[in-house]
Amino acid sequence: MKEKNSRSMRTCAILFSARVGNGVDIAKHLMLEDDIYLLSKYQLKPCSNCHYECFTKLPCPITDDLKLIFELLNHYDQWVIITPTYDNRPPSLFYIFEERLPSLWNRSYSGFEDCYKNKKVYLIIIGNDGVSQTERIIHTHFEERNANIFGSLIIKPSDYSIGGGIKGSLIQNKELLEVLKPIKEWVNHAEGGF
Predict the structure, then answer these.
(1) If you average pLDDT over every residue of the chain, what do you get?
(2) How far apart are CA 35 and CA 151, in angstroms?
């Protein structure tokens, strides 16, 4: 057995899906469940009726789990972003997440500016239509915040004959497991598995 590096890189999956389905199945195939963050399980509130506190030093009036989410994610060196595509774009959960980021810029979350910096990110976009547009939007979000986009994978459920389509069970398809193999190796390598 090979000895792990003294400082192994840690990888987590961040899911923007509101449901437990193909994205969660893929994440569980790639890594341990403790390293999977389904953002729909957290309380994330959209911006609403504030006085632009995020442009000042005043605290954001919205209380939710955004700060907690970043405190958890900051412990990881690599992020696998998994998102479905709805109506040619990312789901609303992504937009809420992105919209609320200014509330962390200048205030209570010290180190936010470094949270994305130099993170290695792999994107997995799931959907039959509009996946390229979704990929561009997600890619831009992470690239503009100085994350290092390591790779990207588009999964179209209609391309696979086995697996239950867009709602789940796609992981049962052996062809998909082959497609996911390089990402799983990337995750395992980061964790010191090589």
Answers:
(1) 85
(2) 19
